[in-house]
Amino acid sequence: MDPHQRFCNNRSCWAYGRVGEGHIVIHSKKERRYKCKRCSQTFSATKGTALYRSHMPHDLVAAVVTLLAYGCPPQAIVAAFSLDERTIYRWQLMSGRHCQRVHEHIVQAGGVLLAQVQADELRVRVVGGVMWLASAISVTSRL
């Protein structure tokens, strides 16, 4: 647990989103909780992540989300891990929302160095015309 890499999750606190300024301290190592010295709010180490309020082992959640990302059907995960299907869909939704927030924070804010970019285009003939598909990827970050 490193409080210097955390920030206050209270949106009304003036220290919200500020990392490494020394206003976050460890509140409880056993429960993995932090405390902001500015607003006196405590928060979990998983607050703001896909693992927040997950009462299952984090390795299990990561394994299930990885299987979903590779196209494994949720019914197969239910059979393999004896989980409820609604739990799997909730984990999928929460991890998708977290990925969207990370994308907005890093990629859309210009945090990716575009030193070398590879671009491809694909021409496809379809009924009624031609379609083009273009894609670009940053070599260093794979985004």
Write the element-wise H/E pattern from the N-terminal end onward. Answer: EEEHHHEE
**Poorly predicted sequence stretches spanning 5 or more consecutive residues:** none
Mean pLDDT: 82
Domain count: the total is: 3
Work out the strand percent. Answer: 15-25%
Structural class: alpha+beta
Summarize the main sheet: 3 strands, antiparallel
Q: What general form does the structure show?
A: flat
Question: Please, how many helices?
Answer: 3
Distance between the termini: 29 Å
Radius of gyration: 20 Å
Number of strands: 5
Helix content: 25-40%
Strands ordered across the widest β-sheet: 1-2-3
What does this protein look like?
The structure is a single chain. With 143 residues, this protein is α+β, with helices and mostly antiparallel strands. The protein has three domains: 3-44, no CATH class; 58-107; 114-143, no CATH class. It has three helices and five strands. Strand 4 and strand 5 form a beta hairpin. The two termini are 29 Å apart.
Outline of the structure:
The chain is α+β, with helices and mostly antiparallel strands and 143 residues long. 30% of the residues lie in helices and 22% in strands.
Any descriptors?
two-stranded antiparallel sheet, 22% strand, flat, 3 domains, 143 residues, alpha+beta
Secondary structure layout:
Layout: E1 24-28, E2 33-36, E3 42-44, H1 58-69, H2 74-81, H3 85-107, E4 117-126, E5 129-138
Antiparallel strand pairs: 1-2, 2-3, 4-5
